[in-house]
């Protein structure tokens, strides 16, 4: 006997398969209708798996405040930054680097790179921010309540130049390697990894492509995905499907704000 949620998921997946092939928008709409249930399900699972959250955090707070004071900003919350920082720290004794997909201005990269070597991939590294996203000023203003409208971003720099300036200031420059390219294609070039952090395209198909990266993660490593929330139903759907496909190989999910992660057994 299927539970109510399982029935809904079955319908959802059935419709999604049909619509996904040529119309991402319609399928996204279906996910929006049903994603609350999936979200609730994964959140309930996540609640059973509380991460160790009371870790000594003076170093993290110092780093976070330093970046804030220098107007180095990104698209993750303080809680998410803290989770990335401690997850990366937990991988310290592991030889394999961390792979980040989606660096933007290099903010999340800094928290990953404090204790580990990070290989980060972004398809807009060679673009200037204004060209990559003409609405960025408005976007930043909304996201950061005007306070960050004058974030330390210089229009003439490419995203990679902005990243490098940020990484030098934060003292993590030597720990970061970059690839400018498409996530899907870059996967083949990647070494084995202790952790993969995904924060690039947010549609179902792109997140689904994460499987190529998942296969790189060593035992006891971590896979973390950002924007697991109702605003990006494609992420919820793809993460949920990922979870169903790989359940036996995963511990978790764990969740803080809209960062969801699993430990690889
Ligand atoms: C949401 S931003 C990343 C924010 C960053 N993690 C932070 O918190 O500061 C997404 C980034 O992913 C990059 N991106 C989007 N689609 C991509 C793709 N298919 N391959 C590689 N990078 C991609 C974009 O250029 C953008 O810089």
Automatic annotation (TrEMBL):
Pfam families: Methyltransf_24. It comes from the Bacteria. InterPro entries: SAM-dependent_MTases_sf. SUPFAM superfamilies: S-adenosyl-L-methionine-dependent methyltransferases. This is Class I SAM-dependent methyltransferase. It comes from Candidatus Buchananbacteria bacterium RIFCSPLOWO2_01_FULL_39_33.
